[in-house]
Write a structure and sequence with these properties.
This protein has two domains: 76 residues; 78 residues, Winged helix-like DNA-binding domain superfamily/Winged helix DNA-binding domain (Arc Repressor Mutant, subunit A). The protein contains six helices and six strands, in the order βββαβααβααβα. The relative contact order is 0.13.
Length: 173
Amino acid sequence: MQKRPFGRNARCTLVETPFGEGGIIHADKPLRVLACLLPRPDVKDFPPEVLTLARTLRPPKALERLVQAFARYFLGKPPVFDLPLLDFSPLSELERAVLYQTMKIPWGQTISYGQLALAVGRPKAARFVGATMAKNPFPVFVPCHRVVRSDGSLGGFGGGLALKRRMLALEQD
Protein backbone atom coordinates (compact mmCIF):
# COMPACT_ATOMS: atom_id res chain seq x y z
CA MET A 1 0.00 0.00 0.00
CA GLN A 2 1.17 3.51 -0.78
CA LYS A 3 2.41 5.66 2.02
CA ARG A 4 0.33 8.68 0.99
CA PRO A 5 -2.61 7.37 -1.05
CA PHE A 6 -4.36 10.75 -0.91
CA GLY A 7 -1.39 12.93 -1.88
CA ARG A 8 0.84 15.40 -0.09
CA ASN A 9 -1.65 18.15 0.63
CA ALA A 10 -4.54 15.92 1.78
CA ARG A 11 -6.23 16.66 5.09
CA CYS A 12 -9.00 15.02 7.05
CA THR A 13 -11.71 17.21 8.52
CA LEU A 14 -13.31 15.38 11.42
CA VAL A 15 -17.10 15.45 11.63
CA GLU A 16 -18.87 14.74 14.91
CA THR A 17 -22.10 12.74 14.46
CA PRO A 18 -24.46 10.80 16.74
CA PHE A 19 -22.96 7.65 15.16
CA GLY A 20 -19.39 8.57 16.11
CA GLU A 21 -16.71 10.63 14.42
CA GLY A 22 -16.58 10.62 10.63
CA GLY A 23 -14.31 12.43 8.27
CA ILE A 24 -13.98 14.16 4.95
CA ILE A 25 -10.62 13.84 3.24
CA HIS A 26 -9.84 16.77 0.99
CA ALA A 27 -7.04 18.44 -0.88
CA ASP A 28 -6.64 22.18 -1.09
CA LYS A 29 -5.02 22.89 -4.46
CA PRO A 30 -7.35 22.55 -6.24
CA LEU A 31 -9.99 22.18 -3.54
CA ARG A 32 -11.64 18.79 -3.92
CA VAL A 33 -13.03 16.00 -1.74
CA LEU A 34 -11.06 12.78 -2.11
CA ALA A 35 -13.09 10.54 0.21
CA CYS A 36 -15.56 10.41 3.06
CA LEU A 37 -15.11 8.25 6.13
CA LEU A 38 -18.12 6.71 7.78
CA PRO A 39 -18.39 7.41 11.50
CA ARG A 40 -16.53 5.16 13.92
CA PRO A 41 -16.67 5.03 17.70
CA ASP A 42 -13.03 6.11 17.90
CA VAL A 43 -10.86 8.04 15.44
CA LYS A 44 -8.13 5.46 16.11
CA ASP A 45 -10.35 3.00 14.20
CA PHE A 46 -9.76 4.85 10.93
CA PRO A 47 -7.49 3.04 8.43
CA PRO A 48 -3.74 3.61 8.93
CA GLU A 49 -3.42 5.69 5.74
CA VAL A 50 -5.97 8.11 7.20
CA LEU A 51 -4.30 8.33 10.60
CA THR A 52 -1.19 9.82 8.95
CA LEU A 53 -3.17 12.76 7.51
CA ALA A 54 -3.25 16.15 9.17
CA ARG A 55 -6.58 16.34 10.99
CA THR A 56 -8.67 19.42 11.49
CA LEU A 57 -12.00 20.22 13.11
CA ARG A 58 -12.51 23.23 10.85
CA PRO A 59 -12.87 22.67 7.14
CA PRO A 60 -11.85 25.24 4.55
CA LYS A 61 -14.74 27.70 4.11
CA ALA A 62 -15.69 26.25 0.72
CA LEU A 63 -16.21 22.82 2.32
CA GLU A 64 -18.37 23.95 5.23
CA ARG A 65 -21.68 23.14 3.49
CA LEU A 66 -20.45 19.67 2.56
CA VAL A 67 -19.34 18.98 6.14
CA GLN A 68 -22.72 20.20 7.42
CA ALA A 69 -24.51 17.97 4.90
CA PHE A 70 -22.49 14.97 6.10
CA ALA A 71 -23.41 15.70 9.74
CA ARG A 72 -27.07 16.36 8.81
CA TYR A 73 -27.35 12.90 7.30
CA PHE A 74 -26.61 11.26 10.65
CA LEU A 75 -29.30 13.43 12.24
CA GLY A 76 -31.82 11.85 9.88
CA LYS A 77 -31.97 14.68 7.32
CA PRO A 78 -31.26 14.21 3.62
CA PRO A 79 -27.91 15.80 2.75
CA VAL A 80 -27.78 18.67 0.28
CA PHE A 81 -24.27 19.16 -1.04
CA ASP A 82 -22.05 20.45 -3.84
CA LEU A 83 -21.37 17.61 -6.26
CA PRO A 84 -18.53 19.41 -8.10
CA LEU A 85 -16.32 19.16 -5.00
CA LEU A 86 -16.31 15.35 -5.11
CA ASP A 87 -13.31 14.07 -7.07
CA PHE A 88 -14.43 11.12 -9.20
CA SER A 89 -11.37 11.34 -11.48
CA PRO A 90 -9.54 8.23 -10.18
CA LEU A 91 -12.52 6.04 -11.17
CA SER A 92 -13.25 4.46 -14.53
CA GLU A 93 -16.05 5.77 -16.71
CA LEU A 94 -18.25 2.78 -15.84
CA GLU A 95 -17.55 3.13 -12.11
CA ARG A 96 -18.53 6.80 -12.32
CA ALA A 97 -21.73 5.86 -14.18
CA VAL A 98 -22.61 3.37 -11.43
CA LEU A 99 -21.93 5.91 -8.67
CA TYR A 100 -23.88 8.69 -10.43
CA GLN A 101 -26.83 6.30 -10.81
CA THR A 102 -26.51 5.36 -7.13
CA MET A 103 -26.90 9.03 -6.24
CA LYS A 104 -30.37 8.92 -7.83
CA ILE A 105 -31.70 6.34 -5.35
CA PRO A 106 -34.26 8.27 -3.30
CA TRP A 107 -33.96 8.74 0.46
CA GLY A 108 -35.43 5.75 2.29
CA GLN A 109 -35.50 3.44 -0.73
CA THR A 110 -33.28 0.59 -1.86
CA ILE A 111 -32.35 -0.98 -5.17
CA SER A 112 -30.66 -4.29 -5.95
CA TYR A 113 -27.20 -4.66 -7.44
CA GLY A 114 -28.86 -6.16 -10.54
CA GLN A 115 -31.34 -3.30 -10.89
CA LEU A 116 -28.49 -0.82 -10.63
CA ALA A 117 -26.53 -2.72 -13.29
CA LEU A 118 -29.59 -2.59 -15.56
CA ALA A 119 -29.98 1.16 -14.90
CA VAL A 120 -26.47 1.81 -16.25
CA GLY A 121 -27.10 -0.35 -19.31
CA ARG A 122 -25.02 -3.33 -18.15
CA PRO A 123 -27.64 -5.93 -17.07
CA LYS A 124 -25.06 -8.66 -16.45
CA ALA A 125 -22.75 -6.48 -14.35
CA ALA A 126 -24.28 -6.97 -10.88
CA ARG A 127 -20.91 -8.18 -9.51
CA PHE A 128 -19.16 -5.16 -11.01
CA VAL A 129 -21.75 -2.94 -9.33
CA GLY A 130 -21.04 -4.70 -6.02
CA ALA A 131 -17.31 -4.20 -6.46
CA THR A 132 -17.88 -0.52 -7.27
CA MET A 133 -20.03 -0.10 -4.16
CA ALA A 134 -17.23 -1.69 -2.10
CA LYS A 135 -14.76 0.97 -3.20
CA ASN A 136 -17.18 3.93 -3.19
CA PRO A 137 -15.05 6.82 -1.90
CA PHE A 138 -18.08 8.93 -0.93
CA PRO A 139 -20.50 6.95 1.27
CA VAL A 140 -23.44 9.09 2.36
CA PHE A 141 -23.13 11.37 -0.69
CA VAL A 142 -23.15 8.34 -2.98
CA PRO A 143 -25.56 6.23 -0.88
CA CYS A 144 -24.19 2.75 -1.49
CA HIS A 145 -25.93 1.59 1.69
CA ARG A 146 -29.18 1.75 -0.33
CA VAL A 147 -27.97 -1.03 -2.65
CA VAL A 148 -28.99 -4.52 -1.53
CA ARG A 149 -29.13 -8.06 -2.87
CA SER A 150 -31.98 -9.10 -5.17
CA ASP A 151 -33.56 -11.13 -2.33
CA GLY A 152 -33.69 -7.99 -0.17
CA SER A 153 -30.86 -9.04 2.15
CA LEU A 154 -28.27 -6.39 2.87
CA GLY A 155 -25.25 -7.71 0.98
CA GLY A 156 -22.00 -6.04 2.04
CA PHE A 157 -21.00 -2.65 3.34
CA GLY A 158 -17.63 -1.09 4.08
CA GLY A 159 -18.85 0.29 7.39
CA GLY A 160 -20.22 -3.10 8.45
CA LEU A 161 -23.73 -4.48 8.22
CA ALA A 162 -24.77 -3.07 11.60
CA LEU A 163 -24.03 0.46 10.34
CA LYS A 164 -25.80 -0.25 7.02
CA ARG A 165 -28.89 -1.42 8.95
CA ARG A 166 -28.72 1.65 11.15
CA MET A 167 -28.40 4.04 8.19
CA LEU A 168 -31.33 2.43 6.37
CA ALA A 169 -33.41 2.62 9.57
CA LEU A 170 -32.45 6.28 9.99
CA GLU A 171 -33.95 6.99 6.57
CA GLN A 172 -37.23 5.31 7.55
CA ASP A 173 -37.90 7.57 10.55
